[in-house]
Fold this protein.
Amino acid sequence: LTFPSYNPNQDAPPPPPSTNPNDVKTKWDVTGGGGAIITGCLGLDCIPSLQNPSFITLEEANFLNEDDIIYGLVLENEVRAYPMRILDWHEIVNELFVSPRIAITYCPLTGSGVGINIVESGLNFQDTDLHSFGVSGFLYNNNLIPYDRTTFSNWSQMLLRCVNGIARGTPMVTVPLIETSWKTWKKMFPNSKILSNNTGFDRPYHIFPYGNYKTDPFLLFPIQIDDPRLPRKERVHGIITDRYNLKAKTYRFTLFENGARAINDDIDGEPVVIAGMKTADLYLSYSRRTADGTILTFDIKTEAPHIYPFDLVDNEGNVWNLLGQAVAGTRTGEQLTPTTSYNAYWFAWGTFFPDVAIYSE
């Protein structure tokens, strides 16, 4: 197959030539099939993504407030922050690091942010200009459906897989994002680069585009399951164990409101640790299983952390920074494996992962 070139300066590019209409790839691999897909806006790139945008220093980022939420990425010695107030208007940022092509995706309707390693997700074609994602205009249970500009397939952001098109069934390979407040991020990484609000688009980045959506329980579009166990707009940390059979577990931010703590848990036989601190707006999770198969148990340490605001300490006496890197002890130099996880509104977890477990003490 050959695919048309994509010019980001043109409106919606045409899809590739039609294949057999009976091919399963043309169907939607979601509960409810194509009937569950909603048109949120018309046409590919109806919300414009950002392509290789410019960055500024912390001192130059004077458009941010202390409680603004940002998504941080630490990769190949690069530290970058993507403010939610810009992602609210663009939803996808594509850029080229030293090696991997990365897409930062954020859906303001489900409150979910996911980083994608584009090439490792199978979009490894020779023309690197095609290695990017755009907004398809479609939604599933109010959640963003990005399309890739290599195969023009549609991907579910929260399901972390391709659900329609030539790449249907392909899992997203994700990169860990750190969601936290601007106040906390500045203390964590004072030398970070910040996505500039000088994007080339005329958008009021100081205004949230969907009014009081963040605090009001209303939804803009229908959902398949409305799970009443928690308030719709409560944001929780969720860990996915099976993106195809819809298995996950969620952890409320209120578990961490009395200070920093580490929760050692097991999900579907996999040992995990969830570390968080509500006053720092920070929640992270890792596998407790090391490369040699040892299962560790963790506690948290806030005194003189290697990266603000805490370190993890395991039952062997090793110290790990919040990036999951062992920085002291016999395991120095080892790396914990990040879970497949992100934060999102409760209603989104409830509808995407029916009867999803909620951690309780």
Residues 1-18 have pLDDT under 50 and may be disordered. The helical segments are 84-90, 182-188, 346-352. The chain is about 5% helix and 35% strand. The first helix runs from residue 84 to 90.
